[in-house]
TrEMBL record:
This is Fumarylacetoacetate (FAA) hydrolase family. Keywords: Hydrolase, Metal-binding. InterPro entries: Fumarylacetoacetase-like_C, Fumarylacetoacetase_C_sf. The keyword Cell membrane does not apply. PANTHER family: ACYLPYRUVASE, FLUTATHIONE S-TRANSFERASE. Residues 29-222 form the Fumarylacetoacetase-like C-terminal domain. One of its GO terms (molecular function) is metal ion binding. Coiled coil: none annotated. It comes from Herminiimonas arsenicoxydans.
Length: 229
């Protein structure tokens, strides 16, 4: 039986795959909070006392190869530069030992945050979506397949604003490593092919303004450049 939608469905969010004409369909975006000790401290928390926690962005928050439009209802937008993990396989209760087998590839991305709105939500005990899951809040690079990049366990990560280094760290400084993040997430959710994980950010996050030029790089993975408009 033929069926018709009562409204036009939205297009599937996608990420390009570097060096090919293939596209990666995005299912969900999971983000881990405070996963580098120095960033945890700069946000006023103790990295030795916190279990891991996660929040989500919407798949259609992704933008690729586009400038970042400064969002409404805020005067304090922060950058958080991160390694992005793309899953080719899903599952429940995935073991740490098997977790890396589920990865399609890696990229880099920004968890853009309306920090003032997030701060109000925290104080009132409310969810973070208004601060984290707004339009264009997940700029991402193209993905690089595991066959080309391997599984990066270490490598310098830096982010510049107008040519000035603002964030600098190394992937090996993650409190919860990529395999652990996948394993833990899979106990709370049934992970699916197409899921992305934004793996946390080093210390040095801060505000941006219209006209700023942004550039980030993870050694051995890739980089990205964009402007704030």
């Amino acid at each position: 039986m033929n069926q018709a939608y009562v409204i036009q469905p939205q297009s599937i969010p996608i990420l390009p795959v570097r060096g090919t004409d293939k596209l990666f369909p995005v299912h969900r975006i999971y983000c881990i909070g405070r996963n580098y000790a120095a960033h945890t401290i700069e946000m006023g928390h103790d990295p030795d006392k916190e279990p891991p926690f996660f929040f989500q962005k919407n798949p259609d928050n992704i933008i690729v190869d586009k400038d970042f439009p400064y969002p409404p209802e805020t005067s304090d937008v922060h950058f958080e530069f991160e390694l992005v993990v793309a899953l080719a396989k899903g599952g429940k209760n995935i073991t740490v030992e098997k977790a890396l087998d589920h990865i399609f590839g890696y990229g880099v991305g920004l968890d853009m945050t309306r920090r003032d709105l997030q701060g109000v939500a925290k104080k009132m005990g409310r969810p973070w979506e208004v601060g984290k899951a707004f339009e264009h809040s997940a700029p991402c690079s193209a993905l690089i397949p595991v066959a080309d990049v391997g599984h990066p366990h270490k490598g310098g990560i830096w982010f510049k604003v107008n040519g000035e280094v603002r964030q600098k760290g190394d992937l090996d400084q993650m409190i919860w490593k990529v395999a652990e993040q996948i394993s833990i997430l899979s106990t709370f959710f049934e992970l699916k092919p197409g899921d992305l994980i934004m793996t946390g950010t080093p210390a040095g996050v801060g505000a941006i303004n219209k006209g700023d030029q942004l550039e980030g790089m993870i050694e051995g993975v890739c980089g990205m450049k964009l402007a704030v408009i």
